[in-house]
Amino acid sequence: MASSALTASGISGKKNEEIAELIDYFSKCQYRAKEVNPKVEQIEKRCLELFGRNYKYSIIQNTNGEVCGHYPRQIVFLEYESLEHDKDRYESTLQVSKLQDLVNRSKMARCRGRFVCPVILYNGKHICRSSTLAGWGELYGRTGYNYIFSGGSDDAWAETDEFPDDDDSVRNGDSQLFDKVRGHDIKLLRYLSVRYICDLMVENKKVKFGLNVTSSEKVDKAQRYADFTLLSIPYPGCEFFKDYKDRDYTAEGLIFNWNQDYVDAPLFIPASLSKNLNIDWSEYQSWDLVRQTQNYLKLLIHLINCDDESGLLVHCISGWDRTPLFISLLRLSLWADGVIHSTLEPAEILYLTIAYDWFLFGHMLPDRLGKGEEIFFFCFNFLKHITSDQFSCIRKQRRKNSQFRESDFTVEDICQLKRRDRGSTTSLSSDFSLITEDSPAGAANFSYEGVELTSAGGQTQAAWRKGRTSSPQTLLLNKPHQPEERLFHLGLSEGKSSSSSSSNQSENSFMRAGSSPLAVPGRRCPPVPERQARLEAVREVFLAAYSATVGLKSASPSSSGAITGLLEQFARGVGLRGTNMIV
């Protein structure tokens, strides 16, 4: 457990400590519904408490993993927001008993029994997750297993009128079985009012040892899913994130190899859904990991906004790597806009999405860390790339971006620059090119339990409880000028030559505060937009907790010091300091 080490090292902030303990436990223990202990029960209870802050919910029972062994034992079905006006507007008409029955019947249809599960409620619409469709090998294997161990009967196939025969007079056994199990799956999708199905697989079917072990809606031969809007948005699997880690956690310029033999699923998005996004989808194979993730997230947000009644399903193969990545980004993005989980603080929404979307839905973090496949870390480090209004679900009139020379900026212009504009847009250290050095008045004293948010449009302020400090920019820019304080820029090496490193070192050398336009006495910068401040607060709590528990392992020794110094700055910043060194 991390608690003793973290407490001994002087943790401040109960919620930050809670995040660190969660990540520490998650990194060492694999969740399975049949193998629970008091710690898992504590995590489950905390998740229910956080959901209950804003929602009336019911429970889909999965006691001891009877429905799915790597889904939560108590699956939360959000019915409506607990505010009275939201209840009147979006009160659920679904019956949890009917939903439980459909879940029990449909579980065979999908890989590993990971059925379609609603996890986010947005404007009365359900955002769901699952695995892909099971192939004939898994389907026959699991139905045979169930038949043998149920005494020769399987209640899942009790009904005989599930799916009418088509006009063919002769139907083989495969088709009849698929009609039945996929018929249950389709009924569940319809009951949840799901219209859009987003498939993240880079394959049409997953093949192992020459056998098709999974399928997908897009290649269903009988076109059973033709009434749904199917989107094929291929996204690299968790193995690709080994490359991300080996590049010192740098996603910029990291492009997936689409020419591999097993990659056979092209991107497909109906023109009616893609035309308003101003994205050239034909170029998707040239996108790096940052741009690809950004564009896919924009698409998902567009889908849940373009239809007032229909829900969304996101899935990959097993539904425990790529799927939680996008579900977590969606949850955090919508929260940052203030449209879901509206009363949760940054540390609370972070706890909820790590514990529920990742841990309790079976992400195998210990295995992924052992292999260096750091998709989990990528998710929360990526928040720096979705802070702008481009990713907001709230429809606004946005200004067109313009390109300026650095010399054209005034002090006020520079103050308004997002962090990504001050350095590399994707390296781990890029967003922290301006942070305070370790000093009593600097980073060591601020707590992200108390970030004050000021909306850019009006002068409305939303203060998180116990708040007396602001976001990093406001903290830095609004402090009285101190002659002894210095600002510095951390650069992360990407395997460059020693001469190049020397050049970077000189370019990113320490600067006196007085020499920085940001440090002009008496000048105050405009407040950070609320969405940006919220996401930055979540990310910084995560980085501090991750640093204090798991740590990062640099592929190149020259980068290790930069990573270590960077994350230790954040550990001190939110009051976390663990014993795990970053190596």
TrEMBL record:
Residue span of region Disordered: 459-480, 493-526
Gene3D superfamilies, sorted: Protein tyrosine phosphatase superfamily
Protein name: Myotubularin related protein 14
Domain of life: Eukaryota
Lineage: Eukaryota, Metazoa, Chordata, Craniata, Vertebrata
Compositionally biased region (Low complexity): 493-509
UniProt-recorded Gene Ontology molecular function terms: phosphatidylinositol-3-phosphate phosphatase activity
Entry-linked InterPro entries: MTMR14 (IPR039802), MTMR14_PH-GRAM (IPR039803), Prot-tyrosine_phosphatase-like (IPR029021), Tyr_Pase_AS (IPR016130)
